[in-house]
Amino acid sequence: MEKKLVIPGDFLSDDVKLADEGTYIEDSKVFSSVFGIASLKNQIKVVPLSGKYIPRQGDLIIGIITEVSFSNWIVDIRSPYEGLLHISEFPRRIDNSEMSKYLKVGDSIMTLVKDVDSIMKVELTLNDQRLRQIKDGRVIEVTPSKVPRLIGRSGSMIAMLKNETNCNIFIGQNGRVWLTGKEKNLDLAARTIQKIEKESHIPGLTDRIVKFLKEEKGIPVKGPAKRKVEKEAVKKIEPEPVQEMTSEETATEETPREEAEEPGKVEENKSGGILDELLDK
């Protein structure tokens, strides 16, 4: 068996050279360090089914300002570690006395993890055209380890979700999801995302989500229609969701030029491959 459910301490292999994320070595043997799905193909990895977000350099995430200090905004990033957004990482030059004018406690931001040092000091930045303050829509949360399943293989799940709900969706790698669209569509998107999170470990997820979406809209789908819906969703989906999520004013006061699908790609490229492999039906 190449995949199996494991708990911390479960024996995985005698070949320590294959040990990877989610494992530890003891007495020349490999054990699981987390509760999750173990992949025993090529390398030994365990993908956690729960737990806090652990930041890595290059992650695109959604943070919430919790404090404004002399030269830093302190940011909740859904992690055991706080994020620090230094005034120099704001996209325009401002004085320390003006910090609360631009970002105050409670504001949400789409931000990038610039650096994480050995003592887990997490430095953030807004100096990127993809990044901004979130001023509209709705932000919901999912378990960070479920993010790759929400994206789907080659972006198929999120593409279908955007198409079927007519919402723009940005998925932060820390499990915060930014939705914009009409209120009734936001409700449907939020319920669907919650269903994906709850049932991501059960085989046949895509079939159930297609059926759920269509039934919610009064359009039942049977059998092969599922694949057709997926393909149509991927074709129809707009390639720039972040650009579409414009508000009257952004932190940079510019319209983002980057393709908004890039955040999704970053997520998928960094961690999605193994998660998709482990958790796909």
Describe the structure.
The chain has 281 residues and is α+β, with helices and mostly antiparallel strands. It folds into three domains: 3-48, RNA polymerase II/Efflux pump adaptor protein, barrel-sandwich hybrid domain (OB fold (Dihydrolipoamide Acetyltransferase, E2P)); 60-134, OB fold (Dihydrolipoamide Acetyltransferase, E2P), CATH 2.40.50; 138-279, Ribosomal Protein S8, Chain: A, domain 1 (2-Layer Sandwich). It contains eight helices and 15 strands. A hairpin with a 2-residue loop joins strand 3 and strand 4 (29-32).
Annotation keywords:
3 domains; OB fold (Dihydrolipoamide Acetyltransferase, E2P); five-stranded mixed barrel; 15 strands; 281 residues; alpha+beta; three-stranded antiparallel sheet; Ribosomal Protein S8, Chain: A, domain 1; single chain; disordered C terminus
Concise summary:
This protein is of the alpha+beta class and 281 residues long. 30% of the residues lie in helices and 25% in strands. The strands form four sheets. It has a five-stranded mixed β-barrel with strand order 7-8-9-11-10. It has a three-stranded antiparallel β-sheet with strand order 1-5-6, with helices on one face. It has a three-stranded antiparallel β-sheet with strand order 2-4-3, with no helix packed on it.
